[in-house]
Amino acid sequence: MPPDAHAFGVYLHIPFCAKRCDYCAFATWTDRMHIVGAYLDACVADLDRAVNDGLPAATSVFFGGGTPSLVDAHALMRVLDHVPRADRAEVTIECNPDTVTPELLRTYRASGVNRLSFGVQSMVPHVLQSLGRTHDRANVETSVRDARDAGFESFNLDLIYGAVGESLDDWRATVDAAVALEPPHISAYGLTVEPGTPLADDPARHPDDDDQADKYVVADGALAAAGLDCYEISNWAKPGFECRHNLLYWSQGEYLGVGCAAHSHRDGTRWWNVRTPERYVDAIANGASPMAASEQLDEGERRIEGLQLALRTRGGVPRGALPDDMGDLVERRGERVVLTVRGRLLANEVALRLS
Length: 355
Hints:
35% of the residues lie in helices and 24% in strands. By secondary structure, the protein is of the alpha/beta class. A nine-stranded mixed sheet has the order 7-8-6-5-4-3-2-1-9, sandwiched between helices. Strand 3 (85-95), helix 3 and strand 4 (115-121) form a beta-alpha-beta unit. The mean pLDDT is 96.
């Protein structure tokens, strides 16, 4: 899946949360709300500097976190105002159902935001409690209704499966409740154990691989029946509602990351910013680069990475990229090879056979 030569993304990391989930390894903080203003000012200054250096117009913008919807909507939209955007650019904001209000959504929509991603995770109370989430099913339903009332046609429901105590019936209930809201996009991720998190320190709560495989199959069947096509291993969408920003990542496209811990890719070079918001603010205030480190893949590494990413998508890889003895893990579609449902469950193993 070659990158669109005209596509360019801007990712803005908003690292503030009201409560940190114990499975989360992202660069987020619950005790830094006092520097929100200084942090957003630093993001604006960083963007202005990038614009002066020739930043392309963004075809997609993504506010991730953290909890972007925890921050004052008008202050967040002031940052968006400094992002040069192409016509009909996709602009997404991640939202926690607990922090969504009709006024906040109207402010987003009036400022050019046209896509939302709701952190739902589960629709079952005891599973939400296991995950450390504070919202409930009613909050999700209200948020979706308010989003539609505010004029949002494009939104995603983000789900997680595999939490301790989540039965297969619990997961079916979550998927069915999500489908009932008729979203144009659903993401479903298996719970992963990240080093350094409270979840990692509690083996009794670690997910089971076989259980997660069963739940993936349940999700894929239900979402396909609802008219959502699996266009990447963990993402399903109705035609035309695929996340353009994520497609940019999966096609090795170019993007600028703004904010602490944000990653960028330009001209074959990747770099990432300092991890903490204070260090990011200080770097920008002092006229210094916030970059922490960088890397550049050689041609061979970049080719293999491109195949690994493409393998995860419905476009698959060229026939010659995999041997002929892959059995029922793949199917051939013309000159391309794509993963079957079973192949998606073993995608990492299949990727080892790429050449």
